[in-house]
Amino acid sequence: MKKYNIFFLIGLLLILGAGLIVSMGYPARARYFPVIVIIFCSILVSAELIKEIRKMYVFTAENRKDEPGPPVAETDRDKMSLVAAVSWIAGLALMIWILGFIIALPLFTFIYVKLNGEMWRWAALLSAAMLAIVYVCFVVLLKMPLYEGLVFLN
């Protein structure tokens, strides 16, 4: 367990708190969605923070044995999984910037599911569900225009 996990989670809570303060300055209808998302995210981050603190307390309470650190292969695997996660997020952000939300989210879902070894039918079904959820929730129910992307802005 590394202490930087706890500092990272505390930083996330501070950022969420700042977002809550900023969103309180919005008109009543505009602040509804950000406040709900911030509250749910704060609950999840707080639960993770409690879990990390408990792990640290249990680890320090035990009699520590002089154990060597993790094998090099395990550390390399962790770094590669971090690089993969950051790459997926960067790819999604790039797709949203170029294609917009309505096209990028289902396309990203399809690519991610298909590259993780699922069948074509399952990938297409999840992509269609993502398109329906995003369109109905944001465009129809909230009447919120979504970013259209560089390709479709003009």
Describe the fold and architecture:
This protein has about 150 residues and is mostly helical. The chain has two domains: about 70 residues; about 80 residues, no CATH class. α1 runs antiparallel to α2, α3 packs antiparallel against α4 and α4 runs antiparallel to α5. The longest helix is centred in the N-terminal third of the chain and has 34 residues. The radius of gyration is 20 Å and the shape is globular. The protein starts with a helix and ends in a 13-residue tail after the last helix. About 5% of the residues are buried.
Topology as a string of helices (H) and strands (E): HHHHH
* Quaternary assembly: single chain
Principal-axis shape? globular
Q: How far apart, in Å, are the first and last alpha carbons?
A: 50 Å
Largest sheet: none
Based on secondary structure, the structural category is: mainly alpha
Number of strands: 0
**Beta-strand residue fraction:** under 5%
Number of domains: 2
What level of helicity do the residues show?
over 70%
Task: Calculate the mean pLDDT score and round it.
Answer: 83
**Which segments are poorly predicted (pLDDT under 50) over 5 or more consecutive residues?**
none
Helix tally equals 5
The rounded Rg comes to 20 Å
